[in-house]
Structures are given as C-alpha cells and as structure tokens.
Amino acid sequence: MAHWIAACQADDIDPEDVIPFEYDGSDYAIYRSPDDVYYATDGHCTHEKTLLCDGLVMDGIIECPKHNGRFNYTSGKALGAPVLVDIRTYPVKVVNDTIYFEVS
Amino acid sequence: MPAPAMVIVGAGECGTRAAFTLREEGWDGRIIVVGAELAPPYERPPLSKTWEFKPLCDDGMLWEADITLLCGVEATGLDVAAHALELADGRRLEYRSLLLATGARARRLPVGGTRVHVLRTCDDAAALRARLAPSTRVGVIGGGFIGLELASSAVALGCAVTVVELGPRLMGRVVPARIAATVARRHVAAGIDVRCGTGVTGLARVDSGVAIALAGGERIEADVVVAGVGAVPEISLAASAGIETGDGIVVDSRFATSAQDVFAAGDCCCYPHPLYDGRQLRLESWRAAQEHGTAAARAMLGAAEPYAGVPWFWSDQHDLSLQVAGLADAAAGEVVRVRPDGVEIWFGLDANGRLVAAAGVGPGNAVARDIRLAEMLIARRAAPDPMMLADPAVALKSLSARQWPRSAIHAPL
C-alpha cells in the first residue's frame, strides 16, 4: 500500500544538495534543487551499494562518490557507464514546510 | 583473410575499457583483446582491500559487444612494419591499430622464497590470503597504498602487522604530509607497528619464518613478508619493437607511440600532461586506466582531442577513505580547510596561486564531494582565494567552476 512518509523539514537541506534518509530498513536520498523543488530517490547507487548522499549534486545531477556514476535525480535516469541502470524515484510533496515522499 | 582487427594487449581495466569503447564509438570490425593472465578481466583495487575477485565484465557483455578475448596468452613479438602481433601460442594477429595496455608488474625484492609475497594479480591475492590467519605475523615492506591497504586488511583478519618504510613518512609519493599523518595515526591506533625512515638490509629464512634485518641493526621476525615497493611498467614488448620507452612507453597526449598505428595507455605509458606544463606522467591509478582506455580507443578511431584528465587516486584503509586529486608534488604552498566534522581537506597551490592538488581523508566517502569540487577547480586552472579555501563556511561549490569534468568514461550529458 502506498503511503507518504515525512522525511525532513524544508530547511534541513541546503539548496542544490542532498541528505540521507532511512526508513524501514531502506536508504533514500532527498534532494533540494537550486530553485527549491524537492525530489527523492533510492539511497544507493545502482552500480554498487554506495550511498549517494555523500556525492556531489549539481545541475540536476547526483554523482556517486565512489565511481563517479551520474544520475539525473529528477528523473532517475542513469547517465552512462559505470551506471547502466536507472535509479528509482519517488513522488514528493511539501506540506507546511515538511517534505514527504511516497513509497509503495 | 579477415580484415585487420583492432588488437589490444592487456585485459585489465584499461584494455577492457578500450575494447568496449571501440564498439560503443562505432568500430564494426573485429576487436581482439589478448590477456596474459588466465583469469578473465577483473578489478584490481578490491584485491588489497577485501580480497574480492570482481569481474570487469561477463561473457554476455563480451558476446554482445562481439569482443574476442584471449586469456592466458602472452604477446611475444611485435612487428610494427608488418602491423602484426605474435602470440606465445604461435598465432599471428594482423592489426589495423594496436593498443598496448600491458600495465605494470609488482617490483620484487632481490630475495624471494615462498613466504615473500607481492600483490598485483588475483593469484597473488589468493596466495597471500591463504597465508593469513589470526596472530600471523606479517611484515609489510613499503608504506605506500598497496602496503598500507594490505596492513589494514591483515589486521582485520587478526594478524600482527609491522610496516617498514624507507622514506621519512608514509605514502610520500602522492599524498601530502598532513593527510598522510592522519592515516598513519589510524594505523598506529589499529595496533600496527609503523616504522618510517627504516631501510631493510636483508631477509633470511629462519625456523620460525622470515627474519627482516633493518638498517639500524634490529631484526624483526615475520611469518609472511609482503613487498609493496612499487610497480615496474611492462614495456618489454614495445622496447623490443623499437618503440620509444623511458619510465613507461612514451606516448603523446592522444596515446600514440613512436610507431605508426600503435598506441599505449594505462599504467604502462608515460604521457605529457597539459595541466602540469607538459610534464611526463606515468600514473598507476584505477581511474586513469579507465579514462586512458576510453581516450586511447577514441584516438585509435581518429579522434584528435588531447587527454587532460586530472590525476585522481583513492585508497581505503581501516574505516578511512583517502582521495587525492591532482599532483601534490606540484604544489609550492598549501592551505588546509578544517571542516566542522573534523575532516581536513588539503589544497596545494603552485607559485602562481593556481590550485594543482587537493587531498583529504575521512570515514566512508566523507571527502568525496570536496575532492570532486577541487578537481573541477584544478581542471579549470583556477586560482581560488586561499582564505576562501581555508574557510569551512565558504561552500567549495561557490568557488568551483561548476562544470562536470568531461570524464572520458561517461556518455555525453
């Protein structure tokens, strides 16, 4: 069953940055774009099990800190070797400055 | 008679990456990769860290890209005039273009024996791992990346480890002193006996193992000795064919050797780096091997673009991960940023204030982002204000050139 999870407050993430979020034993990454739009993806790179939250966020892209694989964090699209598999994204909503994302 | 193929000697990171790039970039003829090791292509970095054998590709990927892989075959001769490569099994491969990605081999100590190991190949790793058990006494000769990663891995198995380094400090070749000191403290805290400025004068087989004679007259005993004393580029095939060599096979900035249609890339080559005044570099680096392979493959297909990737190194030791971008020895001055989490990021500036290197060490991937941003500044020849570099309140991103490196391994963004 799909449900919304409160991940953080809007100010917990700097503009154009990412924070980690753990829920029910799974890791997620929550993003804030430069124009304050929020996104959520799986927490791990699809190449190896590296946490993405230590990677660099720039120009709509998150880069894995270990092997430099890159994803478009708004669409989840993998942008080339070494990452070949897209990353899963989740719907996000902001209610009273709280960031929620929807898992199923 | 089939049309001449693209032939690659060496099935490591560089050669394998080159083979796949040739196909990705549209070469529709044959691609043949010749590897001296029996094992199919695999990643070397995990061997000293986790002992893991990690393949670079599987049969399906090779099949799909229609790459012919010949494993366990030595290339024994090269006739550059005839454009032909001779293999130990008697085969002769005619090439359109040839890439030498022959890598390097572990430098060995002048003494040997079954208890004196090196680590370069998966076979080396398996042989060494089989010798290690709780309380095994391990003597590591050489305090560089390989020696220290092995020291860390051996301690994790419960071994008693001594590291002997001839130089005045650990990792003197590529890591700045301040960052190396942080790593050294971690090794000592893990119970490793770290001895810098200490030469080894001899090894002797004794009943209980190996006696390591130190320059000061002391003798330490070990059950197993590992030499992590650097690597020697594999240049003999090139040299025997009359190709120019020095500390590596000499190539230009698009990996062309002195012989027509012969290229060399990865650990075996030395190349001029445009970011460092054309200085000849020979790197032993996982990322460089990948990027060289990609760039050399493009050059084999006629691309004229020079390679200017920023040198980058990483090492995992204990719970720490170390990263270095650029060349620390090109720095004339240094600036250190101490972050609120206690992690230090070191910046090296040349005499003109240009950022030429950055390094950091911290738990997990704590330094990855800062080093990546520093790498962008290095690539753009930026000369950031040292005060801003030192101030942890100033976001490095605000100083950076804000341009993703055109990392050769990535598809265009």
Any overview of this molecule?
The complex is a heterodimer of chains A (104) and B (413). Chain A has 104 residues and is mainly beta. In chain A, 0% of the residues lie in helices and 45% in strands. Chain A has strands at 3-9, 17-23, 26-32, 38-42, 56-58, 61-63, 70-72, 89-90, 92-95, 98-103. A 4-stranded antiparallel sheet of chain A has the order 2-3-4-8, with no helix packed on it. In chain A, strands 1-10-9 form a 3-stranded antiparallel sheet, with no helix packed on it. A 3-stranded antiparallel sheet of chain A has the order 5-6-7, with no helix packed on it. Chain A is globular. Chain A starts with a strand and ends with a strand. The model of chain A has no long low-confidence stretch (mean pLDDT 93). Chain B contains 11 helices and 28 strands. In chain B, strands 1, 2, 5, 6, 7, 8 and 21 form a 7-stranded mixed sheet that branches. The model of chain B is unreliable at 408-413 (pLDDT under 50). In chain B, a hairpin with a 4-residue loop joins strand 6 (75-79) and strand 7. The two termini of chain B are 40 Å apart. Chain B has helices at 13-24, 45-49, 59-64, 122-129, 145-156, 177-189, 236-240, 286-300, 368-379, 386-390, 396-399, and strands at 5-9, 31-35, 42-43, 54-55, 67-71, 75-79, 84-87, 92-100, 104-106, 116-117, 137-141, 160-164, 193-195, 200-206, 209-214, 219-222, 224-227, 231-233, 245-246, 248-250, 262-264, 269-273, 279-281, 312-317, 320-326, 333-338, 344-349, 355-363. Chain B is globular, with a radius of gyration of 22 Å. Chain B has 413 residues and is α/β, with parallel strands linked by helices. The chains are: A mainly beta (104), B alpha/beta (413). At the A-B interface, loops of A face helix 9 of B.
